What we know:
Layout: E1 7-10, H1 24-31, H2 36-45, H3 47-51, H4 57-67, H5 74-87, H6 93-102, E2 107-112, H7 116-125, E3 134-137, H8 138-141, H9 148-157, E4 165-169, H10 172-180, E5 184-187, H11 191-201, H12 204-208
Parallel strand pairs: 1-2, 1-4, 2-3, 4-5
Amino acid sequence: MSTDRRIVLFDLFGVIAHHQRPGAPAEMAARCHAPADAFAKAYWACRLFYDAGQWSASEYWTAVLRRLSRAAGTDTIEELRLADIDSWSRVDGRMVAYVRSLCDVAEVALLSNIPADHADAFRAAQPWLGDLDHVAFSGKINAAKPDPAAFRHCVAAMRAVPADFLFVDDRVENVRAAQAIGMKGHVFTGLDELAAAVDTWLPARSRTS
Length: 209
């Protein structure tokens, strides 16, 4: 079933924004005097709870530091938190321009796995997000991809049905999760391939208007 709407639902990191800045985890490890490999393991082991809004920034960094047998002082936590936000702050200008151009021919939304405090910082730094029809951050909606609840949030928030959506993500497991609830899916590998897929998916009247 479809309402004949066309909603392009974008992932953020790895599609519109770059993944974490190379070297940033090692820099954060050095800040708390921890081995880089051990830091990376602790960082990712605890991340889902932070991304999904189950832990605050303080709870997340306390858990990471405890895994590393390091003191979780307030100053250390804040230093790591700000460094972490900065490491995920880079966007791809060509993709931002493309996403904004789609707003003329389709509804455009965003679904990102990102902690709540990161989301606040990202939104403040990227005013173009206000041009989108809906923005969903995992830390705000308490569900992170590939949890079906994250996709269902977007469906309900936009008063749509899954078949109205084309979901774009660089991770195959997330695209498959979207397809499992009835969305169309595209695994992002680059702008040219994406633009061709979107042009094929949009109704002819939108492509030629």
